Amino acid sequence: MVEGFPPPSPSSSPPTRSLFSEQRRARSRFRRRELVQEEVRKTMLTYMTSLKGEITDVVLEEMIDYYNSQTSKLYRLEKELVNLKNTSLPILQNGTTINDLVVRMSKQQRSFASNISQMEYKIRNLTNVLNDLLSELQKPVQHVRRLVSVKKDFEENETPTDCDDILRQQPTLVTQGIFRIKPRLSSESFDVQCIFENNTGWTVIQQRINGTIDFYRGWDDYKNGFGDLRSEFWLGNEKIHQLTNQGQYLLHIDLKPWDGSLRTAEYGKFSLDNENQNYKLQISQYQPLTSTAGDSLSSPWDNANGAPFSTFDRDHDNLFYDNCALTYHGAWWFTSCFQSHLNGAYVRSPLALQNTARNGLHWNTYALYHSMKETTIRIRRQRTSETKILMAQTKKSVSEFIQDAFCPMVAVLCSYDAESICRKNNLTFAELIQPFCRLPTEGFSF
């Protein structure tokens, strides 16, 4: 029995029962639609909450207006049903009115179904929009990651290549200290001792001051380096090779004998070959005007230029009957064991002043076989002004001088048509090779 309606009399005709049945079905369909509408409303509220303002206000307002209009329709329909309840007897007497209401409800049902489909379609579109937004948000994240990677590479590439490079980056440095560098041929950075004087930065490769470090060592120790950068040390042949093959380097040696004086030896060109060449010494251009200790590395009577490095476990000297490193307890670019040896045993005074101290720290053009109290070997890259002087001395052209003195890679580069490459890219020759040699461009042209 439907609440609010009188029970049909036994004499009720079949059309009347049909009308009641249609009414019940109509109310049932209405309730289902009402539930669907409520579910849609909840779904919309859920999506509106999750979107949190990321979807444009225009789309949300449109959907809210649509929902309000549908709600208004439901309210009107509910009011009509109430009116139908209150006027059921007249309506029962008028089958046409019931049929019209059923038709209207059927149309409304189809409209609801269509509207629900449209809302589902819009929800799918909104979901796609959200996914697209998430995808777009990932792009800046990936871009930032790339920027971080580029920044890291940039910082890695900006690591100073030697102590003179450090001084160019920090021109106020006025003393010495421990700094980190990374030569271009090196895959890793490492610490070095730097000396800053006269607006130049020197990289120290050897220091002897008190005999606290044993220099009688094998090949691997001299390859990798050993000791304490703040006291006595050998930087390492591999590091020296990497340093001196990124430009033309000066060599400066400080010698302090036991009488407290200071003697120096300076060379305009110094480098080491790689390990496959046994770290051969390339030394020339002794500077007599700035040196006071004489030439014990490239003198005609015992020239170490081109000599491989020797240790007690790898003998490369010129003597078939002797092993200089083993005999004199050290390691050096030996030829005949006599002219120079600054990695020997630390011999203290007064024995150091005797000619029999053959295994000490020797620089024989100054003190014959007397052993030094302190030694410092340091290097730095040639400057532009110094280069012009050397060019005048050697009477070489710009390209010949750079190819011969500054960078081993230039020889390979110049085997191609460098002049046409320069013209095509509007570069000078120095600018063309600068990425390889990091040369100053001032004063150079092709």
UniProtKB/TrEMBL annotation:
InterPro entries: FIB_ANG-like, Fibrinogen-like_C, Fibrinogen_a/b/g_C_1, Fibrinogen_a/b/g_C_dom, Fibrinogen_CS, TRAPP_III_complex_Trs85. Residues 1-26 are annotated as: Disordered. It is found in: Secreted. PROSITE patterns: FIBRINOGEN_C_1, FIBRINOGEN_C_2. SMART domains: FBG. Transmembrane segments: none annotated. Residues 1-13 have a biased composition (Pro residues). One of its GO terms (cellular component) is fibrinogen complex. Keywords: Disulfide bond, Glycoprotein, Secreted. This is Fibrinogen C-terminal domain-containing protein. It holds the Pfam family TRAPPC-Trs85. It comes from Adineta steineri.
